[in-house]
Design goal:
single chain; 331 residues; alpha/beta; Rossmann fold; 2 domains; nine-stranded mixed beta sheet; five-stranded parallel beta sheet; 16 strands
């Protein structure tokens, strides 16, 4: 029996939250007295497998094939199934990215095994995994117990600290996964990368979000949000109201129908605090709310509140942070 962690990679770069899960996997494996196995799937990703060795696995399984170059559900599910068989895995973990949730969901169903998606904590009780999920907009934490031999969970990014890379250990073992292209219904015809200069919402330590409060001048409003985010090295987020109004693309949406985030600092500018938005950011370590309505619900969840017009407050914050962080423009 073992603990198996899928290390997601995109274009030969590991998804950072995978290391968070691998670090927690080491802790769980030690509690069970079982080996920890990392799985890397792709093509030409030996460097990712080598990097994984520095985060504590006893073995790294490497499924390397041209047909696995980019994520496609059926071939990757076959690779995960083969890894489970090879490692005799009882606990199977992945980061709760879009791909991670999809992959663990399919394979858990194929194996008729228990699945806890989007977990925020994991522990071992009586030799089995217990997953903790946040429900009702983060107001309740629920324990998920399994009655199947195999236990699957995907873990919300930033739920655990990323371990420090150490001395490489654990051998890399090839994992052959024959893929018949004729049997794979998914075909990737073209790849158009998004703006890679943007900071990922799910990985961001700091997020500055704008909401309906930018309505009087949406272009300027999100320009001010972006300027503050740039100074802080933060990601830009938005409420559903701002996205639905066409002020900013959906990829920035935080909330129940957008991305779930857990940054160290979340600055909400012009966001009222609807329950759907709180469901996506309520677990932030520190929440700063900026709203001209002193009765806005967001203030009930905020650690710090500023009652004022975001068009005045954001430029003032940006100017002060530039000063404090030594980023003022030189004349």
């Amino acid at each position: 029996m073992s603990v198996l962690v899928w290390i997601e990679q995109i274009d030969g770069q590991a998804v950072h939250s995978s290391w968070e899960v691998l670090g927690k996997g080491r802790e769980l494996a030690d509690s069970l007295g079982s080996p920890l196995v990392a799985l890397v799937v792709g093509h030409g990703v030996e460097a990712v497998a080598e990097e994984a060795r520095g985060y504590g696995p006893d073995t790294v399984l490497l499924a390397d094939d041209p047909a696995l170059e980019r994520f496609r559900l059926q071939p990757y599910a076959a690779a995960l199934q083969e890894a489970i068989r090879r490692a005799d895995a009882s606990v199977i973990l992945a980061s709760a990215t879009t791909n991670g949730r999809t992959l663990t969901g399919l394979v858990a169903c194929q194996n008729q095994a228990g699945l806890a998606p989007d977990a925020v904590d994991l522990r071992i009780e009586e030799g089995k995994l217990v997953a903790v999920r946040s429900v009702y907009s983060g107001n309740i934490l629920s324990d998920i117990y399994f009655d199947t031999d195999q236990q699957f969970a995907s873990v919300r990014p930033r739920s655990f600290p990323a371990p420090e890379a150490g001395e490489a250990q654990g051998a890399i073992q090839p994992l052959p996964v024959p893929v018949d292209e004729g049997q794979v219904p998914e075909k990737i015809l073209e790849v158009k990368p998004a703006d890679t200069s943007e900071i990922s919402l799910t990985d961001a330590r700091i997020i500055v979000s704008g909401g309906r409060g930018v309505a009087k001048d949406p272009e300027l409003g999100f320009k001010l949000v972006s300027e503050l985010a740039d100074v802080l090295g933060a990601a830009v987020g938005a409420s559903r109201a701002a996205v639905d109004a066409g002020y900013i693309p959906y990829k920035h949406q935080v909330g129940q129908t957008g991305k779930t985030v857990k940054p160290d600092l979340y600055i909400a500018a012009g966001i009222s605090g609807a329950i759907q938005h709180l469901a996506g950011m309520g677990q932030s370590k520190v929440i700063v709310a900026i709203n001209k309505d002193p009765d806005a619900p967001i203030f009930e969840r905020a650690n710090y509140g500023i009652v004022g017009d975001l068009f005045q407050v954001l430029p003032a914050l940006t100017k002060e942070f530039k000063k404090r962080l030594g980023k003022e423009e030189k004349e």
